[in-house]
Specification:
The longest helix has 17 residues. The N and C termini lie far apart (46 Å). Strands 2-1-3-4-5 form a five-stranded mixed β-sheet. It is globular and about 40 Å long. It is α/β, with parallel strands linked by helices. The protein contains five helices and five strands; from the N terminus they run αββααβαββα.
Length: 149
């Protein structure tokens, strides 16, 4: 079985973010991985669905729950291109995700802008890795907002 690394899966999340970009959605993408296999994908669909909760992470998590027939994902890793917001952190907390990996920080809307110090918005058993392909992740979202100005 081919073993992929964090950069490979973050590239897959970036592909999802590009799909959002191409649809004029804020370009954030996510994939959920279990046993080195992508089981779900998602990208922002807030505009398409007219739903402020249709974030990449939420859509990828819902698809993963359906795929596994489970409400918890302790063996899963969620890869997302941008630091999750508090809403998405709450969804990950309740889903008991084993691991969360994100690319670029989001100083305006990411959980870090609301939670300081030792507060950890994820489940206590969740592992967190920040900054995977952060430049590529940041560039895509910056290009999107440059185009809006």
């Amino acid at each position: 079985m081919i073993s992929h690394n964090d950069e490979y899966f973050m590239h897959q999340a970036l592909c999802e973010a590009q799909e959002a970009f191409d649809k004029d959605e804020v370009p954030i993408g996510a994939v959920v991985v279990v046993n080195n296999k992508i089981i779900s994908r998602g990208h922002n669909q807030v505009e398409l669905l007219n739903d402020s909760t249709a974030h990449a992470e939420i859509l990828a998590l819902t698809s993963a729950y359906n795929y596994l027939g489970s409400k918890y994902l302790p063996d899963a890793t969620l890869y997302v291109t941008i630091e999750p917001c508090l809403m998405c952190c709450g969804a990950m907390y309740w889903g008991k995700l084993g691991r969360v990996v994100y690319g670029a920080s989001d100083e305006k809307n990411g959980y870090g802008s609301f939670v300081q110090g030792t507060k950890f918005p994820f489940h206590p058993k969740t592992e967190l890795l920040k900054g995977v392909l952060k430049e590529e992740c940041a560039e895509l979202i910056q290009a999107f907002f440059r185009g809006k100005r």
